[in-house]
Design a protein that fits this description.
The protein has six helices and four strands, in the order βαααβαβααβ. The protein has 177 residues and is α/β, with parallel strands linked by helices. The termini are far apart.
Amino acid sequence: LEARPERTVIPVLGMHRSGTSAHAGALHKLGADLGPESSWITPAADNPIGFFEFEPVVEVDRAVLAAFGGTWSSPPPLPPGWADDERIADVRERMVRLAAEIPDRLVVKDPRLSLVMPLWDQVLPPKPGVLCLRHPAAVARSLANRNGFTIDAGLLLWFRYTSAALINRPDALLVEY
């Protein structure tokens, strides 16, 4: 990979439905740069105020999970050394190009970052980030209402995302939702 650009990118991590959008939105209101609003994921019925997600980052994160046969709701097992796997060589190249285009200081929110931060760390200097926590039962109920997931499935997803975020960013600022 090319040399890391001198950028400060602060990740907002956490499970979907754990308040990551609310916290990213609050950071934006306080003046954090989340990238050009024209590049944000558009609001939806289940999140009418907005997701505050920079779409190019989300697209890369989706591509990483897809390369290993997964999605946000069915994250794949990531084998040892996955960040250097040839299946994501093209994604790494996209990441390098994207990293060169982003502003010097950026807050990036995408729950998938909880899982794929080791790859981003190869492209950008690691920063502690923010980890949004919400009670796992509340997340599971929200996923049941929004997506029709079973409570068990929601709890397992909460555990997968939250444990990955804690492993990948043990020094993250923990915030509760």
